[in-house]
Design a protein that fits this description.
Elements (H helix, E strand, L loop, with lengths): L1 H33 L15 E7 L2 E11 L3 E6 L2 E10 L11 E9 L16 E10 L2 E5 L7 E9 L1
Antiparallel strand pairs: 1-2, 1-8, 2-3, 3-4, 4-5, 5-6, 6-7, 7-8
Length: 160
């Protein structure tokens, strides 16, 4: 009889520990389900993104602005002229080849006003390709040759 009296409380005590352990494990699993995953997302952005300005050689008071924005959108402002379009920038795959990065721009809309040079040309629908020669992180040249020859425009970074 003494064994039964001692054994019954011991059995109840062990059963409660077992239920408590199962409850703690269930809570831990539930907590894991509620915790957000620690995913790190890295967005690569082209180094050309930002606002650039180009002084017009014969008109120092007028600056032509190129704003390379996210989603490959470009906005160009030159005096009263505004253009909006798309761009694609392809960095050089292998710097040892000496080939420059490529920039392609397509004008989708143009207000057809006079630019810094005094020209009034509707460029809507135009597609242009340039080769980008980097002097430093804040200064680039647009060139006609993939080897860096025939550079015709120097742009200075205004905003990152």
């Amino acid at each position: 009889m003494k064994k039964t009296v001692f054994f019954a409380p011991l059995l109840l005590l062990m059963t409660s520990f077992s239920f408590a352990d199962q409850n703690v494990q269930a809570q831990a699993k539930g907590a894991d389900l509620q915790q957000p995953e620690n995913n790190i997302r890295i967005n690569m952005r082209p180094e050309i993104l930002g606002l650039w300005g180009m002084e017009i050689p014969n008109n120092k008071k007028c600056v032509e602005y190129y704003n390379f924005r996210g989603n490959n959108e470009v906005v160009v402002n030159s005096a009263k002229e505004w253009s909006v379009g798309l761009f694609e920038y392809q960095p050089s795959q292998d710097s040892s080849t000496g080939l420059l990065p490529t920039l392609v721009m397509q004008v989708n809309y143009e207000n057809n006003e006079k630019d810094c040079s005094g020209n009034q040309v509707d460029q809507a629908g135009d597609l242009s390709q340039y080769f980008v020669k980097w002097d430093n992180p804040n200064q680039i040249n647009f060139c006609a040759s993939e080897k860096g020859g025939q550079c015709f425009a120097k742009l200075n970074r205004i905003l990152p």
